[in-house]
Every structure is written in structure tokens, then in C-alpha cells.
Amino acid sequence: MGRTGRLVIVLCLCAAVLGGSGAAAQGDDISTLAVGCGNRTTIADFLLGGLDGVMASESDSSAAGGQLRLQATASELFLEPVLGPDWEVTRGPVPTVAGGVLDGQTYTAGLPVASAAELTASYGAGVACEVRALLQPGSNFSSVGFFSGTATTEQWAYFSTFGTGTDSVPVIHTSVRGAGGSIVGVPTTVTLDEWHDFRIVWQPGVLEFYVDGALVDTRTGVDITLPQRFGYYKSG
To answer: How would you classify residue 79: left for phi > 0, otherwise alpha for psi between -120 and 50, otherwise beta?
Structure first.
């Protein structure tokens, strides 16, 4: 039997963007988001205080750094045996959650079927999502990132095998569909069958896609007009 494709997730985070780059601060393994912190860019600036209320869980106050790691507004470690109440399954059976891993491969009568789930919280521009995931070939589409809804998929910005999952050489793409309806996929060199940290930073008119801390794609003139949810979709 050939491979049937799989999308496995061990961590997902969503956080607001204060401004600046979405690149992680040095030493980050998988952070919620590390961004430029406005007018606080030196040690003296940080010593002035005034950061209450920005949900900063960690800061880099070096003169060359000036970054904050923000606390996530939504996060999931998949430690429970079922998805938490902040999740909605929109396609297929409830995915398997065990030992800190969500396995998006689901079956009906022994056959793989389409599966999808999403956080119920919706976001506008000015947010980033981050997920540690492993994508395997075998399903045409395995996608993770922002969706207007994984049941309707009208607008999105995500990483995806983009219809190549059953090809002899499947490729992970960045994929965007805005209000205009056109779908633009850009191939990457990101490997399947290996764990990666995927980050998407969505700011007004701009999308940045990062893998393992490296910027792999930037989109400008983005016309995403619908609120977005973090989620995943895998075809049968």
C-alpha cells in the first residue's frame, strides 16, 4: 500500500504583532513571536520600563537586539487525550491527540479521509501563527496556517503541499488566496518527512513566511479581507 499522507503537529501558537520583523531572536527554539519593540531599542530604553500590558514574556534588551517575545493569545501543546474546547473539527473524524502530538491522519472504515480542525478564535491583520509540524507525502494537500475557515477555504495564507503530495517529488509551497480569488503558490526547498517550525506573520497588506527561523517568502499587496483562524487541512 502506498503512503496516505500525514500532517502531525506538536505545538501551535498565535500572537499579536507589535511591529518590526517576524524573525526570531537569537537563541529562540520556537517562540511565539519576536518582533521589533517600537521605540525601545536600547538597554536604556528598556530600563525606563513602561512595557506593562504588552504581554511580554521575555525580552532581549541588548543594544543590537531590542526584541520582545510575546505571550501567545492562543496556544496548544496537545497534552490532553482530546482537543481542547478552543478547537473545532470541521472535516472528518476527531484527530488523534496523544503524548503532545496531534495526528491529522484520520480513517473511516480503514481508509484515509479528509480531516481538518481550527482554533475558534478569529484574527485580523497584525498577528502571527507558529506551528511545529511534520508533513508527509501521500495526500494531495496537507496545509497548515491561516484559513478563513477550513470548511470553506475562501481565503488563506498557509504552508501546503499544494496538490503535489502524490507526485513523485512532492514540494511544500507557501500559498495565498485573497479577496480577488487568485491562488498563488510559491515552491520552497523545505523537506517533507522532517520536523520544522513554520511561522506566518500577517500584517496589513504583507505576509512573511518563515521556516526554522529563516524567511522563505514575502508577499506584498495582500488582499486578505476575511478574519482568519489558525488550522490545518489534509485531503484524503
So the answer is: alpha
